[in-house]
Write a structure and sequence with these properties.
The protein is of the alpha+beta class. The chain is built from five helices and six strands. Strands 1-6-5-4-2-3 form a six-stranded mixed β-sheet, sandwiched between helices.
């Protein structure tokens, strides 16, 4: 059984400091991931579900790449925020990611869907942190190896 992620507060210096130490992030990187993921969800196109999701990737080179979900009346054509961000990153030539963050308008924090977990696994190491922010700026964080348990691999 997968562990239930702890819900932390981005307003707590102790929580943020512990997260940064554990996942090799600076406080500035943490806050940029949070701010940019939250801002990205404002660009979501979701007229059917009204479920906004923003995602941001931090490359090992220190570049932030964002994406938002893009819905379609034919739901299978919908693209999740994480996959939009990775599509943008990969087509711009970026490889090597330090962290992934997602933000939604619900609480508690939502984790990436199965398809997005598989996408993240394609491009990230198993120790990559996946930060999940909720509507109240609380967050959970897990390493990809936990989030993507038993993902498909060739």
């Amino acid at each position: 059984m997968a562990p239930t992620p702890e819900i932390l507060s981005s307003a707590s210096e102790t929580d943020v400091s512990k997260t940064c130490t554990t996942y090799n992030l600076t406080p500035s990187e943490f806050h940029q991931l949070q701010t940019r993921a939250s801002a990205a969800k404002a660009t979501a196109y979701c007229p059917y579900s009204h479920f906004r999701v923003g995602a941001v990737l931090l490359t090992r080179a220190g570049i932030y790449i964002s994406g938002a979900n893009v819905e379609n009346a034919s739901y299978p054509v919908t693209t999740c925020a994480e996959r939009v961000a990775f599509g943008k990153a990969i087509t711009e030539g970026h490889r090597g990611f330090k962290a992934v963050a997602v933000a939604t308008d619900i609480s508690p924090p939502a984790s990436p869907c199965g398809m997005c977990r598989q996408c993240i696994r394609e491009f990230c190491d198993l120790d990559t942190p996946v930060l999940m922010f909720d509507k109240d700026e609380n967050y959970s964080v897990l390493r990809l190896e936990v989030v993507s348990f038993a993902c498909f691999q060739l």
